[in-house]
Each structure stands twice: as structure tokens, then as C-alpha cells.
Amino acid sequence: MSEFSVVIDCFPESVRRYREGYAIVAIDVIRATTTAVTAVASGRRCFFAPSIEKAHFLAAHLDNPLLVGEIGGNMPDGFDINNSPAEIALRTDTMRPMILVSSTGAQLLHNLKDCGTGYVACFRNYGAVINHLIKRHSHIAVIGAGSRGEFREEDQMCCAWIADGLMKAGYKPEDDRTAEVVNRWRDASVEACTLGNSAAYLQKSGQIRDLEFILTHVNDLDSMFMVKEDEIVRIPV
Q1: CATH of the domain at 18
Q2: Is residue 2 pLDDT above 80, yes or no?
Q3: Total structural domains in the chain?
Q4: What's the whole-number mean pLDDT along residues 2-23?
Q5: What's the CA gap between 52 and 58, in Å, rounded?
Q6: Residue 17 CA: distances (Å) to CA of 12, 100, 132, 136, 141
Q7: What pLDDT is stored for residue 1 in this prediction?
Q8: Structure pTM?
Q9: Is 94 in contact with 43 (CB distance < 8 Å)?
């Protein structure tokens, strides 16, 4: 392995491959990591849970929490809002901590808890992630959450943009798949993700505001976010 390397992978269960010796970057552009980053950037505390049951357990230990999320695309009974970055950005009750549940993104974040270093990224902060990682970590795994067994276009893009920035700084791709994903998406415009199944779902389900939010908030946050226990926290850059 090169002294400095980067690998792109997908799905929450892939985290176990990189528990030792890697900094891991979790990505679920549509929508979990975008929702989480947007919440924390607004000053709201953001917790995550791998299940509805775990979310309610956390809620019992927090003051007036906001339950946010979806399972299989549907907002669970008793939750306050869907997994929506557009809606969380408009709310002014930032003193209320948020608990995020989602089909795969929250599970990916949950799997990072036992890793040494886990970061959270989306289109909004991918540039800050590149700058923070360079020379700070020797081996980096960039992992997309995926959905319904598919490595979705938007996650491939964000993974590719981060890996491309690292490669330009001297990191080597660890495998052919990483190089292929970077070559495919490094010069893609953000609109390319509108052709994927995630974007199609948002359009069909009347959640176009989230897609518009994601497309119009690209590299607009110079911020880093890390997984600490069950919480996503902002750290200095």
C-alpha cells in the first residue's frame, strides 16, 4: 500500500474493512448526511440512530428533541419531519436537539462509532473535507451509504470529488474501482445526479425542495463534522 492512499467503497457494512488504520468519510448526499450537516451548521445538536427504537431511547434522554427521518422512504409515526435538509434549514428552533433516522445513512453513521476517526460529508462541505484530510491521515476510505443495494450516482460523485482532491495532493487509489469512480465523476456537474434513482424518488414523491436544496448548496460550507458517540459534531478547520 502507498504511504498515502484513498479507497472508495459503498454500503454501511463496508465500514468493517477500514476500522484499523483508516480515517473514514461517510456520505449520503440524498439525504442523511446533507440533513445532518445542515442541522449542525445551523447550531443544532444532531444525534443519529440506526432504528426507530434507538431513536426513542435517545429521545428519552434529551430535552424536547426533534425526531427526523424516514424508513423505506416513509416518515415513521410520531416523527416531526422527514429526512429533509430543506425543511431543517428553515426551522428556527435550533435549541432543540435532533435525532436522525434513515434507511441507510444513519446506519452508516452508526457503524462509524467504533472506528478511530469518522467524518461526515456531502456536497456542501466536500472541499473542506479534502483540505482537512490532506497529510492529516495517511489512509482514507470514502464510503457512500447506498440505497436498495445500489451505489447511487450522487454518492459516487461526492466520493469521487473527495478522492480526486486527495489524489491531486499525492494520494494513490488503492484499487481499480476507486480509480474508475474518480475518472467517471471527477468532472461531472452537480446536475448529473438528477438522472439517478434517488433524484427520481424525490421528484415522484413531491419532495423536489430537497433536490433543489442539494443542487444549490455545493461547497458552501467551510466546515468539518465528525462522529462522536451517537452525535455529529462540528470541529475546527
Answers
A1: 3.90.1560.10
A2: no
A3: 1
A4: 95
A5: 10
A6: 11, 25, 22, 20, 9
A7: 65
A8: 0.96
A9: yes
What 3-state DSSP class applies to 48? strand
Write out the E strands in the chain. Answer: 5-10, 23-27, 46-48, 66-69, 98-101, 117-121, 139-144, 172-173, 224-228, 231-235
In angstroms, rounded to a whole number, what is the distance separating the alpha carbons of residues 80 and 216? 25
Other C-beta atoms lying within 10 Å of the C-beta of residue 35:
33
Q: Which residues pair with 172 in a beta bridge?
A: 5
Residue 187 has pLDDT above 80, yes or no: yes
138-182 confidence digits (pLDDT tens): 999 999 999 889 999 999 999 999 999 999 999 999 999 999 999
Q: How far is CA 217 from the centre of its chain?
A: 14
- What 3-state class would DSSP assign to 152? coil
Q: Which domain holds residue 51?
A: 5-235
Cell reading at 7? 479507497
Phi then psi for residue 233, to 5 deg, are -125, 150
Query: What length is written for the chain?
Result: 237
Positive or negative, the Cα torsion across 158, 160, 163, 164?
negative
144/154 Cα distance (integer angstroms): 9
Mean pLDDT within 219-230: 96
Mean pLDDT of 6-13: 97
The torsion of the CA quartet 80, 82, 88, 94, rounded to 10 degrees, works out to: 30
User: How many other CB atoms are there within 10 angstroms of residue 104's CB atom?
Assistant: 20
